[in-house]
C-alpha cells in the first residue's frame, strides 16, 4: 500500500531525513515514534505530498507521488497535529467544503457526511460554528475530514491530542476499526497508545529508522536476555539454591521488597543463561521439588525502555529543521 524507498530530505547545514526505507501493507496500523525534531513530520509531509524529497521515491498503492501526485493524494487521508479547520464555518459547511475538494459526487455527499458525523460522535454539532467547539471536538472534525473520502492510507499525527480519556478510548477504537480495511501510519508521543492499537512500530532518530518491528517482538530484536519473575511457596534458601544449580538459569535475584506475609514464600527474578525461554524448565524443576508456583511472569523491555535506549538527546538544531519545513511548505 505504501512504499518509501531510500528517501532523503536534506537542508543546508541541518539534519533532515536520510535514506528512509520502509513499506506498509493494507490493514497494518504502524506506530511512528521519535523524539522532537527526529524527522517524523518531515517524513509524513513527504508521504502526503506537502514536501518533495531530495532523493528517493514514494509510492502509494503503486502510484508515484512524484509522477502522479493528484491520484496518489486522492488515496491518502491526512490529519496533521493542528487540524486544518476554518473556525468561522459550521461543522456541516466545512465537511461539505472538504467533500467538494475531494471530488466526492454531490449525490453522495449527504450520506458520506452523515456516516462520518455518526462515526465520530458529532451528532447535534453539525450547525455549530467550529470556533465555539472544544479542542476535543475540533480534533474529531479534523479526523472526519481525513476519512471523508474513504482513503486507502491514513496519516495521523497525534490524533488523540487534547482529548479526554473517554474520547481517547473512542478514537482508538475507531483507528482499530479503520485498520481492518485501511493502512494507518500513526505518529504519537503516547507510547502506551502504540501498544494498545498498533501491530508494528517504527522508531526514527536523527533522521534514520532505528527500529522496525512488532511491539511484542521488541525485546528479542534488541538482543534482550530472557528474564522472568516468579513467586514460589517453599523454603527461601533451598529454592534459591536449587534454581541456582539449573544450567538454563544465569542469575537468581531476590525481589527488592521481600514478601512478609509468609516466611515460606519467596519472590525472585530469574535471568536465563541465554535468550531461551526458561519458564517450562523452571516449572518442571519446582514441580519435582514439590514447591508450588504462585505466580510466573515474563519480564521484558517496555516500549518506553526501548525508545529511550534507541534515541538520543536531540541537537539544538532540531527546531531549525521544523522551521525549514515551514518555509518550504509555504514557498
TrEMBL record:
CDD domains: ABC_DR_subfamily_A. Residues 2-231 form the ABC transporter domain. The keyword ATP-binding applies. Pfam families: ABC_tran. Keywords: ATP-binding, Nucleotide-binding, Transport. It comes from the Bacteria. The keyword Oxidoreductase does not apply. InterPro entries: AAA+_ATPase, ABC_transporter-like_ATP-bd, P-loop_NTPase. One of its GO terms (molecular function) is ATP hydrolysis activity. Belongs to the ABC transporter superfamily. This is ABC transporter ATP-binding protein. It comes from Paenibacillus contaminans.
